[in-house]
Specification:
The complex is a heterodimer. By secondary structure, chain A is mostly beta strands. Chain A has a single domain, classed as Beta Barrel (Maltoporin, Chain A), CATH 2.40.170.20. Chain A has seven helices and 35 strands. Chain A has a 22-stranded antiparallel β-barrel. In chain A, strand 4 and strand 5 form a beta hairpin. The longest helix of chain A is centred in the first third of the chain and has 16 residues. Chain A is globular and about 65 Å long. Chain B is mainly beta. The longest helix of chain B is centred in the N-terminal third of the chain and has 20 residues. The radius of gyration of chain B is 23 Å and the shape is globular. Classes of the chains: A mainly beta, B mainly beta.
């Protein structure tokens, strides 16, 4: 078998490379492996990553993941409007080319192949990590453009914490949050609740209507609520166990586009996500076992078109992973994953299911001082009667001349067609069960200049990347005018990304300055269709340039932050004859924390689009001008 | 010192990138509006991108052989709206039916200046002028197909005539209007006959699976193209298409000609200027059929499929709309009546309908 051979060869090569021969004695003396539940943390090497920590997340406590990423990352967020759905585009890739992992479990919707990140409340997360570039060898299908990792964590022995917040914003946006946590020596249990409703009836100038009238957005109401319950157990010094349960319900109307006048569509969605994770950390071997069960449903209804589409997907995931070292300089990861998904919908002729098993392995070597490391990873997924590409990646990173970090990565990536791509049947369209997976390679190289001078931290990084995707799937009408997907395009994306972070931290005073700039060309190189006007052209809704800058200052309990985001031209037609103009959005965040013995109270104000930019992220989708959100949060800890 | 070097190097790299970007700034692709106005030529109705886009109208000038794209926006400074379906000219007013925007935009037939919109429609499809004050708009509606009766002066809906599901094309023969009912989001089989003097339904003729196109010939006979009915998987036509002739004097079916293909739907029925020959697309080709014939013709005129078809009354040229990849500029190809290629030109996104003037 292919995978096995490659792993063996790789292994032999590496062993020879570091000139080490295995001896039983040395194994005993190995230090206990530093355990992190996240495979990405340990076995990602050479990829550009960005970490959005809890302090930053706290500033976006009443926002959703789409708002957070639009303002604080280099990921382009395709938002259909305030409160409307939003999907991601990493490095010029499509929405389905992002793997979204919740504590290591892929939560992409199996039918759509993407996750509407406007449905993820930031308040439910402790950390968001973005990994740019392909990572098919670590995460399998979908990790093409990048990976979003949504992480939860907790600490033992913190006592009882209670917090409660209320938020009120423009367009009748109201949100309530409560979180409770009991943290003992061996046990943590926490519960987070939120409730959110909004009218979203913002005013805008409708330039797409006669006389450019001022209109109020219609049919944009939303209502959401959800809970996240987590338990962490320390069974003994070697073993931990956790369980998580995420329930969420959403009901929102779909507003019309500016060219549409009215819309009567409504979407109701809900999810149950239950996971458990067991971890045994030993001196020689660490074992992890995780299980998840997701049940999601989505009902889309439009009284005008009489569309009534109901779908439900159930996914169960089981994963076992082991980590061990065979020398002082390496770490090995071997694991198996089984993911079973099924969809229940009247939109398909029969309910489809998919049983996917994956074998994955990583080998990491590092220098004695851990200043350099390299990782080789491989993964093969199996689905009965389907040919699935073998994925592998190689990466390295390390210190160069003390001031620099050099890192690079090359990875094979792939994406399976979605259930809709394969099995859709209805309304003049049909799926194509013969679709091949999209696949290709991505490469990147980063040079980071890192420098600490007294209280000043300086980081300047540049990354160049390249990515090819073959068999890119698009939907087109066939010769009988029935819309159906096919492996049509070959897409080449390449770009440069710059990043600057300057932090000054004194005892009570803190300044953070950051800037990012991206230049991405994502072009269609080949088409299986004759005379395709899109060949040689840039993909639609991929900004060639975008930039972001922010300044955050805090003194004692007072903080003020300013963020400005520039998004460049985006083409809206595949022959690049039409486009959307660039826009610049400026947001301010102000917070005041008051401490009173065991209590803390935080008053916050979020002011969005302060320069009153009239803009469109997606063509003819109205966006609000200036808007605000005020919040009051109460914290108690004992 | 090392730091400095890095700084300079990065600044240089940044500047280089920024500098190289300028030349990538897009330039709008604009065609000038027809200098001579819109009296002698062909309007091409481009549906536009389906999700969130706007339809456009292109104009081909017969006198200058030039094309002007997006003439509605150029004249009126706002886009037509989401999914432009069809356009008719009646009493020198253009009625452009914008499907997903639920409206009919009206324009001056010579200048294309907006004369206001008829709103309050649900998935409208086609316009038919009845008399100086009244027009019909077929629509899929939200509870079944219907025809909205429009007061052309006030541009308001005055009455609703229920039809079969998914009312599509209409023709007028004498006082009677025949509306093909294609099923909308489902299936139907009727042609609804309406007395236009009273705006009431006379009868529903059971024509065949999903009647979409309807034309009247030189002898006053009504031709209906039923496009057939798919199975649930959209792979096989459980009821293949049919070409049906209706006798307008008795409202009964003269004959019904079944197509053999179970995978290809006949579409886009048009007639020549003399109304003696029918043209339609089928099996990836364009076929012609003499109105005098009582069996389906076996030979194709053009060996190519089109998203829309039209015939220029000025010279009987066949116009074929090629929607390309559906996200970029489409093409119009012209042929003589016998199918010899004439020329082609680029138009807007997803061209689907022709309106000749």
């Amino acid at each position: 078998m292919n995978l096995f051979k490659i792993s063996i060869c790789t292994y032999c090569f590496l062993r020879a490379f570091i000139g080490y021969s295995q001896q039983r004695d040395t194994i005993k003396q190995l230090p206990a492996i530093e355990v992190s539940s996240s495979r990405s943390e340990v076995f990602t090497s050479g990829n550009k990553t960005e970490k959005l920590d809890s302090a930053l997340l706290n500033r976006y406590a009443a926002a959703n993941l789409a708002d957070l990423l639009a303002n604080e990352s280099q990921v382009f967020i395709k938002s259909y409007g305030l409160g409307s759905s939003a999907v991601t585009s990493f490095r010029g890739a499509g929405a389905s080319h992002t793997a979204v992992l919740w504590n290591g479990f892929n939560i992409q919707n199996q039918m759509l192949g993407m996750l509407d990140i406007s449905l993820v409340p930031v308040n439910f997360l402790n950390e968001v990590q973005l990994q740019y570039g392909g990572a098919g060898a670590l995460w399998g299908s979908g990790a093409v453009g990048g990976t979003i990792q949504l992480n939860n964590s907790s600490q033992f022995n913190r006592g009882i914490s209670v917090s409660s917040g209320v938020f009120y914003g423009s367009f009748l946006d109201r949100q309530q949050q409560v979180s409770l946590e009991i943290s003992k020596k061996r046990f943590v249990s926490s519960l987070k609740l939120f409730n959110h409703d909004a009218k979203n009836d913002f005013a805008f100038i409708n330039t797409a209507q006669y006389g450019s009238p001022e209109q109020k957005q219609s049919n944009a109401e939303l209502k959401q609520y959800g809970l996240l319950q987590e338990n962490y157990f320390r069974i003994n010094t070697h073993q931990t166990l956790n369980t998580r349960f995420w329930y969420q319900y959403g009901d929102r109307n779909i507003p019309p586009s500016m060219t549409q006048n009215i819309n009567t569509a409504n979407q109701k969605d809900g999810c149950y996500r239950a996971t458990t994770e067991w971890q045994r950390t030993g001196e020689r071997l660490t074992l992890l076992a995780r299980f998840a069960y997701f049940d999601e449903w989505l009902n889309y209804k439009d009284s005008t078109t009489r569309e009534d589409s109901r779908s439900r997907t159930k996914t169960s995931i089981a994963e076992i992973e082991s980590r061990f070292s065979i020398s002082n300089f390496d770490l090995i990861n071997i694991g198996i994953n089984n993911t079973y998904s099924e969809a229940l919908t009247a939109d398909f002729v029969k309910n489809p299911s998919e049983n996917r098993t994956a074998l994955f392995a990583s080998y990491k070597i590092h220098t004695p001082k851990r200043s350099w490391n390299a990782v080789l990873s491989a993964r093969q997924e199996f689905i009965k009667n389907k040919e699935i590409p073998f994925t592998a990646s190689a990466g390295f990173e390390g210190q160069l001349l003390k001031l620099f970090i050099l890192k690079g990565n090359a990875a094979k990536h792939y994406r399976l067609p979605t259930f809709n791509d394969l099995y859709w049947a209805g309304a003049g369209a049909k799926g194509n069960p013969d679709l091949k997976p999209e696949s290709g390679w991505s490469e990147e190289l980063s040079l980071i200049h890192k420098y600490n001078f007294k209280k000043l931290d300086w980081l300047l990084g540049a990354t160049g990347f390249n990515r090819n995707v073959d068999n890119w799937i698009i939907w087109l009408p066939d010769q009988y005018n029935i819309w159906s997907p096919a492996n049509v395009l070959q897409v080449w994306s390449r770009g440069l990304e710059y990043k600057l972070n300057v932090n000054y931290t004194a005892e009570k005073f803190k300044i953070q300055l950051s800037g990012m700039y991206n230049y991405v060309l994502s072009t269609n190189e080949k088409s299986a269709t004759a005379n395709d006007e899109s060949v040689g052209k840039i993909l639609i809704y991929v900004p060639i340039q975008n930039a972001q800058g922010s300044l955050y200052i805090s003194y004692k309990g007072t903080s003020i932050g300013y963020t400005q985001v520039y998004t460049g031209y985006r083409y809206t037609t595949s022959d690049n004859t039409q486009y959307l103009k660039p826009y610049t959005i400026g947001n301010i965040n102000i917070a005041q924390l008051i401490k009173l013995r065991d209590y803390k109270i935080k008053a916050s104000a979020q002011l969005n689009n302060i320069w009153q930019e009239s803009y469109q992220v997606m063509q003819y989708r109205a966006m609000p001008l200036f808007n605000y959100q005020f919040g009051l949060t109460f914290y108690f800890n004992k | 010192m090392k730091t400095k070097q890095v700084f300079y190097l990065s600044t240089f790299a940044l500047a280089l990138t920024f500098g190289s970007c300028k030349k990538n700034d897009p330039v709008p692709v604009v065609t000038p509006p027809a200098a001579a106005g819109y009296d002698n030529g062909v309007f091409i109705i481009n549906q536009g991108m389906f999700t969130g886009g706007t339809g456009t109208v292109s104009f081909y000038s017969r006198s200058s052989s030039s094309v002007s794209n997006d003439i509605f926006m150029a004249k009126n400074n706002y886009p037509l709206g989401n999914i432009a379906q069809s356009m008719e000219i009646y009493n020198n007013t253009g009625y452009i039916v914008v499907n997903n925007a639920g409206k009919v935009e009206t324009v001056d037939g010579s200048t294309f200046a907006s004369k206001g919109a008829i709103t309050g429609l649900t998935s409208p499809r086609y316009f038919l002028g009845i008399n100086n004050t009244t027009g019909y708009v077929s629509q899929w509606g939200s509870t079944g197909g219907s025809i909205k009766v429009i007061d052309l002066n006030s541009k308001t809906v005055t009455a609703t005539i229920p039809t079969g599901n998914g009312a599509e094309e209409m023709v007028k023969a004498g006082n009677f209007v025949y509306a093909a009912c294609c099923g909308g989001f489902g299936n139907d089989s009727v042609v609804t006959v309406i007395n236009s003097a009273t705006n009431t339904v006379l009868t529903n003729i059971n024509a065949g699976p999903n009647p979409q196109c309807i034309k009247v010939d030189a002898n006053g006979k009504i031709w209906v193209l039923c496009i057939g009915q798919w199975d649930q998987t959209f792979t096989t036509l459980v009821k293949p298409g049919r070409l049906v002739r209706i006798d307008a004097s008795t409202n009964t079916i003269d004959f019904s000609l079944p197509f053999s293909s179970t995978t290809s739907q006949p579409m886009s029925l048009v007639t020549n200027t003399a109304k003696t020959i029918l043209y339609y697309t089928y099996n990836g080709k364009v076929y012609s059929q003499a109105c005098a014939s009582t069996s389906l013709s076996a030979s194709a005129v053009i060996n190519r499929n089109f998203y829309g078809l039209g015939i220029d009354p000025a010279n009987d040229y066949l116009y074929g709309a090629d929607a390309g990849n559906y996200t970029s500029s489409g093409k119009v190809l012209r042929y003589t009546a016998s199918g010899a290629a004439v020329d082609s030109f680029a138009v807007g996104i997803i061209p689907g309908y022709f309106c000749f003037k």
